[in-house]
Write a structure and sequence with these properties.
This protein is mostly beta strands and 244 residues long. The protein is built from 2 helices and 13 strands. The N terminus is likely disordered.
């Protein structure tokens, strides 16, 4: 009986914040009362590492036209799951640029990024997509944040975790490529922070016209690579070839 009595208390924050989206507008208004909040792409969820907290990512329009092109600020929030009070937040102006390659989505990544003893990071993934039919493009980048009990800070920025693109004639002939990267925790390094191991896999294909109306797709051999990102005392450096 004691086990069943405890269960509702353990689940209370999850139940109370089952629809945390209704509080996004209030947080945006409190932090940026003079700027427009893009509620369509904002996200939030209970922190699986600490159910007393809610995590949120709020895109703030700083210079955006009617076609949703321009600059967005990114506000990342840690809030109390019972009261809704903001515990900590991190804001970066012009964190997201939307132009010919359009900003499309945000997602919270709460995988087990245990980057130091007692310190678990969480991520924000930013999705972009191209508008050209004959030059398709898509990408997703990852930023990592840690809340150390006093402040929320960004420790990794603009790591491209997936990208795809190509060029074709709109009918058949063309070339396409796709790259996906996964993140794993490596060995402890500077100040006890673990390195981050990035595993990369890339694939490609080529389409050619064959005969009168046949289109043949030829896949190239996949390639792979591994990178190690080290903590420099404040953040993880991202090589240029992995950065957005």
């Amino acid at each position: 009986m004691r086990r069943f009595a405890v269960l509702p208390l353990f689940l209370f924050p999850v139940i109370a914040w089952g629809d945390c989206t209704e509080h996004l507008q209030a947080w945006a208004q409190a932090l940026h009362p003079t700027l427009k909040f893009d509620s369509e792409t904002a996200v939030c969820k209970v922190n699986p590492a600490d159910s007393s907290q809610v995590l949120a990512a709020l895109p703030i329009e700083t210079n955006v036209d009617e076609d949703r092109q321009g600059d967005y600020g990114l506000e990342v929030v840690v809030a109390d799951a019972v009261s809704g009070k903001i515990i900590a937040h991190h804001y970066q102006e012009t964190a997201i640029v939307s132009d010919a390659v359009q900003f499309k989505s945000l997602a919270l990544d709460t995988a087990r990024y245990q980057i130091a003893p007692g310190l678990r990071a969480f991520g924000v993934r930013i999705g972009h997509t191209g508008s050209s039919r004959v030059n398709p493009f898509g990408s997703e980048t990852l930023r990592l944040y840690v809340y150390d009990g006093s402040q929320l800070r960004e420790v990794l920025s603009d790591l491209v975790v997936s990208s795809n693109g190509g060029e074709w004639d709109g009918m058949c002939a063309g070339e396409f490529h796709e790259t996906n990267r996964t993140l794993a925790i490596g060995k402890p390094g500077k100040d006890g922070f673990a390195s981050l191991r990035v595993s990369e896999k890339s694939t490609g294909s080529r389409a050619i016209v064959k005969g009168d109306d046949d289109c043949e797709e030829i896949e190239s051999a996949p390639t792979s690579a591994t990178y190690t990102l080290e903590y420099d005392g404040s953040r993880y450096g991202v090589p240029k070839e992995l950065s957005y």
